[in-house]
Amino acid sequence: MEKFLRIEESSLPQLTMRKLHSHPHYEIYFLYEGSRSFFIENTLYSITAPAVLVVPPFAMHKTEGGAFRRINIYVTESMLDDFQKEVLTSLSLSFVPLSEAQTASLRDVLALSLDHPLSEEHAHEVDKAKFDYFILMLYHFAENRLPQSKENAGQASPLVTKAINYMNANYSEPLTLDDLADRIYATKQTLNYHFKKDLGCTPMNYLLRLRLTKVKELLATSNKSIEEIAELCGFSSGNYLTLIFKQKEGISPSSYRKNRN
């Protein structure tokens, strides 16, 4: 089973992640300067530093905005103990606002370095120790966490939200742009306009990414056959799913599953 922990720091004048994506691991987004817009699942949020946001595995998301500084922690569930799983599960799809003192404490933990060189194995153990302490402190600070709510939401189009909710509930069914427009009482042109404006993609692009996210989740968490997964995720056959998966992910569904077992 895939197992990793990565701690990365970035300081950029601007970063726009135009493509919605998901991944089979947790992403802990520690924003300590600037502000970002986050689209997660079906809602757009504006987050101002300092704050920590937890993105769970297989959640579709993207981020954009102006100048910022942040630290990202990427960790697979297999690296977590029961306490850490409980903390990250409880904080998923919510964000924790921090005081300046709390921010400094978390940064100090992640920035801790030793004066002498370390082997790769020992460096990994040091990162794990930092992560363990970070999660413990985050749990202590999280009493002020802000869950998803309309008060924290940005200005995502209600039409986009309605369409996404419909696709989330019906992605396993055959669904064309005409079908979607009819179901939510909108024109195709209006749907395309609002999706490109809010998410940088068309409704059908979003639907394909949603289906592939569900495919990856089933490949990683079940023993279902490729044919069964194709049917559950809205693909006409296992062969067609394999073709599209290779085109979009650069790897076959079987190889993707093998890499995570």
Q: What attributes does this structure have?
A:
about 260 residues; alpha+beta; Jelly Rolls; Arc Repressor Mutant, subunit A; 2 domains; 10 helices
List the helices and strands and how they pair.
Blueprint: E1 5-12, E2 26-40, E3 43-48, E4 51-55, E5 61-64, E6 68-75, H1 82-91, E7 94-97, H2 100-111, H3 120-141, E8 146-147, H4 158-170, H5 177-183, H6 188-199, H7 203-221, H8 226-232, H9 238-249, H10 253-259
Antiparallel strand pairs: 1-6, 2-3, 2-4, 2-5, 2-6, 4-7, 7-8
Helix pairs in contact: 2-3, 4-7, 7-10, 8-9
Taken in chain order, the helices and strands follow as EEEEEEHEHHEHHHHHHH
- The overall number of domains is 2
Supply the number of helical segments.
10
CATH architect. name of the largest domain: Sandwich
Summed over residues and divided by their number, the pLDDT gives a mean of: 88
Structural class category: alpha+beta
Q: In this structure, how is the largest beta sheet organized?
A: 8 strands, antiparallel
The total beta strand count reads: 8
The coarse silhouette is globular
Report on the architecture of this protein.
The protein is an alpha+beta fold. The chain has 2 domains: 147 residues, Jelly Rolls (Sandwich); 102 residues, Orthogonal Bundle (Arc Repressor Mutant, subunit A), CATH 1.10.10. The chain has 10 helices and 8 strands. Strand 2 and strand 3 form a beta hairpin. Helix 4 packs across helix 7 and helix 8 crosses helix 9.
